[in-house]
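Summary of Year 1 activities. Much of the first year was spent building the evaluation harness for sequence design. The harness presents a backbone, in tokenized form, and records the residue chosen at every position. We chose the following record to illustrate the format because it has been used consistently in internal testing since the harness was completed.
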């Protein structure tokens, strides 16, 4: 791994950068697990509302099935150099029961409103408990920027 030129960011800088990426990025890898079916990973669109990530998937999908059985999930943004990992608790909301603000913001960001589709969808809200952020090996130490649901300063 090439690490030449990496300047180690302070926690406040990592936090600022992480929040900016959460607000602007489109895709997230979602990792779930089911006691009978094992692990599952899939990329989905996501919306960051300032305190939680909102995803949308088919009501019968493996992701929705897994979250109903085991709400602990991992999310990761798709950049292997500028790593951002979230670990948290997920909750499913049927498309006709999702909070209006979350559904409207999701539709505005992606130009797609699952509530208007023929099939059944669920919105998945993930509230992070732990967030890690690092760029290359020099930032491995101090990579935790949220612990127990509290952002570190």
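For this record, the design step produced the sequence shown next.
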């Amino acid at each position: 791994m090439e690490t030449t030129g990496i300047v180690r960011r302070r926690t406040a800088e990592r936090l600022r950068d992480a929040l900016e990426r959460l607000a602007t990025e489109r895709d997230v890898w979602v990792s779930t697990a089911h006691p009978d079916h094992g692990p599952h990973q899939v990329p989905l669109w996501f919306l960051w509302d300032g305190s939680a990530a909102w995803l949308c998937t088919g009501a019968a999908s493996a992701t929705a099935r897994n979250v109903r059985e085991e709400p602990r999930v991992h999310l990761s943004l798709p950049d292997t150099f500028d790593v951002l990992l979230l670990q948290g608790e997920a909750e499913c909301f049927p498309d006709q029961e999702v909070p209006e603000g979350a559904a409207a913001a999701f539709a505005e960001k992606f130009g797609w409103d699952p509530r208007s589709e023929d099939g059944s969808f669920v919105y998945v809200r993930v509230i992070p408990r732990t967030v890690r952020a690092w760029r290359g090996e020099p930032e491995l130490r101090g990579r935790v920027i949220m612990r127990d649901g509290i952002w570190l300063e």
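Strands lie at 27-34, 38-48, 53-58, 72-76, 82-94, 121-135, 144-147, 150-151. Quantitative recovery figures across the full test set are reported in Table 2.
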